[in-house]
Amino acid sequence: MKPFTSQFTNPFTQSLMANVTDENLHAFVTDWDILEGLVVGIFRNKTATAADVQTYAQVRTELQTHLTQWQNALYPHWQGKKIGGQAAQSDPFAALIAPSHAGEFVGNLRLMQTLPAAREALNSLIIKIAK
How far apart, in whole angstroms, are the C-alpha atoms of residue 49 and residue 66? Predict the structure, then answer.
């Protein structure tokens, strides 16, 4: 099993964030990167380790707080994004922090398919803020 290390998982997002001074957005993006890495790692490894469970519990709590602040700003950016080939019908960010346990990502193709919509929306928001 390849462990996930906390860092920007998306180089494009990292380059976009170089122009952003909002510390709250930096915290949200950092936590989102951790979540994204966990989801991918758990899905690929077909198991959630004890460390995954602990990390998810911590990052989920942080993201629930961050999402309260950013949900309205993110809303127009995920509209029309594709999840599994279909236009998103609900908030991909909320969907990805909805599971109560990291083990719920094991074999969960729908949540894996939700990651790109969330990342595209996040990058779109960053571009808007960085202008």
Answer: 25
Domain boundaries, the chain: 22-130
- For the beta carbon of residue 42, count every other beta carbon within 10 angstroms: 26
Q: How far apart are CA 86 and CA 121, in angstroms?
A: 15
- Segments in the chain forming alpha helices (H): 11-17, 23-45, 50-78, 92-97, 109-130
Closest CA to 113 of 79, 76, 84, 77: 84
Q: Report the C-alpha gap between 131 and 123 in whole angstroms.
A: 13
Q: Kindly report, residue by residue over 69-96, the tens digit of the pLDDT.
A: 999 999 999 999 999 999 999 999 999 9
Classify residue 22 as left (phi > 0), alpha (psi -120 to 50) or beta: beta
For 54-74, write each residue's pLDDT tens digit. 999 999 999 999 999 999 999
How far, in Å, CA of 77 to CA of 130, rounded?
Answer: 15
